[in-house]
Amino acid sequence: MSEPLNIYQRLNLIRSKVGYLKKDKKVENYTAVSFDGLVAETREWFIEVGVMILPSVCQDCTIDTGAKSQKGNALYRYEGTFRVDFVNCDDPSQVVSIKVTAHANDYGDKAPGKAITYATKSAVLKVLYLETGENDEARVTHNMAPGDEVSEEELAPIRVQINYTTGYASTVTNLVIDGGDAQDLVAGDIL
Asked: Shortest CA distance to 20 belongs to which of 147, 165, 166, 132?
C-alpha cells in the first residue's frame, strides 16, 4: 500500500493535469480567464485528488465612491485581503494558504462576492502555476513526442522572435566589442 499524498504532492498532481487555460471572458478592454472557465478545467481534479479550496476574509472595507447609477444608486467599492486555503481532505492539518488582495465595484450588494471570487481565482491560477492566453492556435504544444513535426504556421511566430533576439544579441555584442556601454544602447534606441 502506498503512502497517502501530502498537500504539496496533491497540488502538484493537479498542476500536472491542467496546463493551459484560454482567456474566455471579455472585460472592458481586455480578455480574462473567467472563474467559471477555471472551475470547469480544475474542479474534477481537486475532487479526484482530495483538495478543498476554502477562501476567507482577513480584512475588508467598503467605500462609497461618490458615483451614482442612472437610477441614483451609489457605487460602492469593496476592498479586501483574503486567505485562500488549499486543504488536504484526508489530513486537514495539511494546508497551503495564500493571501490575495482583491476589490470590486457594485451598485448593490454583490461587490464582496465578486472580490472573493477574484481572490480565489487568482490564488488557484498562481498555486497551480497555470498558463493563460487567448490564441491557442499560435501555441506549439508542450506534449509533442520526439520526431513529431511542427507546421510552418506554428513556427512562424517563434522564428520572428528568434530573429529579433538574434539581431539584438548581435548588436549588443558588436557594441561591446567596439568599446560601447549601456549609454550607447540607450542612445541607439536598442534598449
From this structure: 132
Residue whose entry in the numeric block shows the C-alpha cell 486543504 = 87
User: CB of 37 within 8 A of CB of 22?
Assistant: yes
Residue 24 is placed in which grid cell? 474566455
- For 143-165, b/e burial (b = at least 16 CB within 10 A) is eeeeeeeeeeeeeeeeeeeeeee
What is the C-alpha separation between 185 and 54, in angstroms, rounded? 50
Nearest to 131 by CA among 53, 7, 33, 35: 33
Q: What is the pTM of this model?
A: 0.67
Closest of 20, 37, 48 to residue 135, by C-alpha: 20
**In the structure, how many helices (H) and strands (E) does the chain have?**
5, 7
Query: Three-state secondary structure along 95-121?
Result: EEEEEEEEEEEECCCCHHHHHHHHHHH
Report pLDDT digits (tens) over 22-75.
666 676 776 678 899 899 999 999 999 999 999 999 999 999 999 999 999 999
